[in-house]
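Data availability (excerpt). The following record was deposited with the supplementary files.
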Amino acid sequence: MRFYYFSATHWDREWYQPRQVYRKRLLTLTRRVLDLLEQQPEYRHFIFDGQTVVLDDIAEVHPEWKPRLTAAISGGRLKVGPWYVMPDEFLVSGEALIRNLQIGRAVAEEYGSAPWPVGYVCDIFGHMAQLPQLFAGFGLKGAVVWRGLASTEPARFLWESPDGTRIRTIHLMPRNGYGQFTLDVRGGTDRSPEEREFRERLRQCVEQDTAYWGKEAFLLSDGLDHSCPPEDPVQMLRWIAEEYPDAEFVQTDYLDLFEREFGPEVSTVLRGELLHPADINGNWQISGTVSSRSDVKRANDLCSNRLELLVEPLLAERAAAGETGDLGLLHYLWKELVKNHAHDSICGCSIDSVHRRMLGRFGEVFDGARAIVDDQIQLDRERLTGVRLEKQSGDPADEVAPDGRYLLRLRNPLPFDVDRTAEYEIRFPAAAPYVKRQAEPFGYEFVNSFQLRDEAGELVPYQIVSIRRNQMRQFQWNVFRRYDVYRVTFRTKLRAAGWTTLRLEPSPEFVRSYRTMRTSQRSATNGILQLDFHPEGTFDVIDLRSGRSFRNWNEFRFDREIGDGWNHVEPVGSAALLCSSASSLRVTLDGPERTMFEITRRYHLPASLRYEGGLGENYVGIREAEESAEVILHTTVTLDRDSDQLGLRFAVENHAEDFRLQLIAPTGIPGNCFAGQNFAILNRKAGRELGDATEGGFEREFIEKNVSGLIGKRDASGGVALLFAAGIHEAGAIDNAAGELVVTLLRAFRRTVNTDGEMEGQQSGRSEFLCDARFFGAGTDDAELWKAVQILRAETPVHLLKAEEARPFADESFCRIDGKLNFSALKPAADREPGSVVLRLVNLLPEPRRGSVTVAKKLRAAEFCRLDETPVKGVEATDGGHTVPVEASPWEIVTLRLRF
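Predicted structure:
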């Protein structure tokens, strides 16, 4: 027998206590660990939960401890990383997971060491399919998991991601996981039992768990939540050795276990995501976290979208030109964002004060990212005018074009062309009226009369959505001016990763259009899709290309909620509200480019759940309140010219408590669904993967599961996909004749861990959810659908300047991707080397794919890298140093470093 003793702590930075309370405990733990490492050389090492954020939290308070920490870390006795924080895998983006590991590496290196090369995910609530590929891309030697596996799965197995990457994996003891030794032998987090009790408990543990670990290698995992090592670990280790004198004893950091215990006998291969519900009391998968605190998840998604799909591509172009001045701020913003990705934080299962502070941090990140974007707009203005920002006029009147001719500049940050209808803000300087204005006879409302022309000189039809006059907007970082703000909708093609220019000029004719896409009071068509609205608040979609009908969309389901941030739980009876008490329909925009309908449905449900007591202060049970409360749902349906994509915005005005709200979307397509996940689109079974097998189990399996970006159904003729912009991470497919997709919008709950109940999880007030519905034919694949998700999520910066100010210029695409490979990241290199850019692509299809990357500026060199940006091999650029060919096997992630 070989005993492997693992000494660690599992550090939740914030959870049932605020961060500063936990930090006090962290300082106590660190003092003990450093003392033990310095005073007991036989105590070989301590593992800081696979994280490095703890080092920042310690050094902020005790900078004088940094030399001691550096000595312990660089000496290999205090193991930190590879993570910055231990994240949730389903609620943050794939790129955020990579940034997390990159930041973890950078912090570890500040203390003189490479990060601990183990994919330690001991307490994450299930695991994504592509995690083995991510870990291998950072050179990690293996993974350590607990949740998401049946107790019958072996203690050691090979875990395979969709691309075929396999990684050695340890399955922690199902019953107590990473805290098995802490609980079973020590008896609790801070206990150091006397010798007699310790030996007795140890023997019981070994006898009980040998059937699981086997007779060759037995793991003793001493790393429970916020636990300190024993007061005298060396004495404790001697007792173990004395109790089993014929056994080999190893103080492990898992590397030796990976090296020695994964011989040919380890033959089990588990593939893809790990989501199995608990089948014994203890190894809970905990799936409800993907739908709790949707406000937190929406804020995170908006920050990630802005950093990944806007800020980084903009700064990549600056880095290619050798300009790296903003990269320190970019690193800081990512670091602040990743702090919110700790699993008990982003999962929405902490106390209210934790999530309140998270929302503040999200706001800081969002604002910092906006400042970078504002600077890039000003740089474009400087490039066109030749006038430095600080020398531009302080007179607002100088912004006014006397001839009414302006350049409307639009920046597409994505490295592929985008051709779609969108709404943009045009800011006319309010210092003087526009040179050409129009109004109906007698001058009821004056409107600027202008036309738009694309770069080929062709007219671009547009619709004015709204006008707000004398609005304050930022001109420079410290200069604000008044503008007449026009919200305008039009369709134009935006070049890949570059600026596109439309010319705005006075119209010689009155700008008016009688055309509409409406065909009756309650129907409309754009020639591809037909919409028919019903009085009760639903609508039908007909795909005119195939004749396929999608009936009764905009249905919702309310059921009761007695769960918490971890789990959705319905009270006995499973009561649900399915129909609204009233509905109304109005047209909010009508024209040839875009038509918008708003459906308002009013639902009256019992205001809350009551937890009642009886005589003698006995608890009686749960019942619905007698009084009712109203939840109002506003659904905005947007139909664009020549588009097979329908815009959907759901606004929830919530005045009730203790419920779950779900969207039901009938597709009429039987069978399985497909769902997005980081670096993959997975096929999932309609209904429950395990069928009825968990009815008598310890943890139920839900139809709804984690999703990232999209869910849909297809057959041989095509199908439909719901594309999510932000805040939606739980959906599934019901196994019924209607082929219904079910999407969780929010869960309103009061239970938080170790409190008497709190109210911010009820999410009272207004919540918004933005998604699109894509109706596609047989030729549309997953790669195209994922591009549509990115287009939905990406922002398009816009600015207006006088045409006469602009010098001659030629816009071009900084970077363009061609082929069926999907874009994942376009960013400055992590080492901030001037002239270096990293491009990441992924093949989301089940067959090998080829593509190419074309850049405007000549390349000095190009090389393929691991995910951590370690070079692997060079690649020769063609086309005079401007084009790099790329190949990817199915579901492979490819990272390319471009040196300019």
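Summary of structural features: The longest strand covers residues 479-494.
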